[in-house]
Specification:
The structure holds two protein chains of two kinds. By secondary structure, chain A is mainly beta. Chain A is built from no helices and eleven strands. Chain B is mainly β. The chains are: A mainly beta, B mainly beta. Chains A and B meet through strand 4 and strand 5 of A and strand 5, strand 9 and strand 10 of B.
């Protein structure tokens, strides 16, 4: 079965430091990949998505992710963390266009002053 | 106003009670979804609907039912609530950017506690 794995349920970074949130997928063919963010007491909103047009995908709020087929990874990065980035981040995969997402278990990002 | 709304936002109920969670959207999307979120488990799909006449079970549909009353409305029912249905429930819609590429738009969630 297709799946997505997020390494680290909690990540803490200092304000201004690099943010790296890891996501690996299992798929026999390159899937569509997504990162969503959930701020406290809110629903999820799309940060960015990979749809095969470009391997480096830029999203909102300065985030970007790189699709690496050889590593089956789609890690999320941001050069400089801001306090407002504190949230839970979900990686999701849509295996070969099934109209159904598979979500990872989420990574809660804490930004330290 | 929010594009995807859910009512109620919080609900406490007792074991065995029937409850309904409602979702409305103003985005004009045909596709709607119900998920539940549990700590450490991410989001899991309960039901999804591609239009008013097309409703499908997701990975964890047991104990739940849905009704698509109109393009804009998709309700989730717990016929006889049990404590392990305590969770955060999300409704979502999706556009039709292309098969598999759709962005999903989430409501704010309904926090349900079953005693």
């Amino acid at each position: 079965a297709q799946s997505v794995t997020q390494l680290g349920s909690h990540v803490s970074v200092s304000e201004g430091a690099l943010v790296l949130l890891r996501c690996n997928y299992s798929s026999s063919v390159p899937p569509y990949l997504f990162w969503y963010v959930q701020y406290p007491n809110q629903g999820l909103q799309l940060l960015l998505k990979y749809t095969s047009a470009a391997t480096l995908v830029k999203g909102i709020n300065g985030f970007e992710a790189e699709f690496k087929k050889s590593e089956t990874s789609f890690h999320l990065t941001k050069p400089s963390a801001h306090m407002s980035d504190a949230a839970e981040y979900f990686c999701a995969v849509n295996p070969s266009g099934t109209y159904k997402y598979i979500f990872g278990t989420g990574t809660r990002l804490k930004v330290l002053a | 106003d929010a594009d995807v709304t859910q009512t109620p936002r919080n609900r406490i109920t007792k074991t065995g009670k029937r409850i309904m969670l409602e979702c409305s959207q103003t985005k004009g999307h045909d596709r709607m979804y119900w998920y539940r979120q549990d700590p450490g488990l991410g989001l899991r799909l309960i039901y999804y609907s591609f239009d008013v006449k097309d409703i499908n079970k997701g990975e964890i549909s047991d104990g739940y039912s849905v009704s698509r009353q109109a393009q804009a409305k998709f309700s989730l029912s717990l016929e006889s609530a049990i404590p392990n249905q305590t969770a955060l429930y999300f409704c979502a819609t999706s556009d039709e950017a292309g098969r598999g590429q759709e962005t999903q738009y989430f409501g704010p969630g309904t926090r349900l506690l079953v005693l």
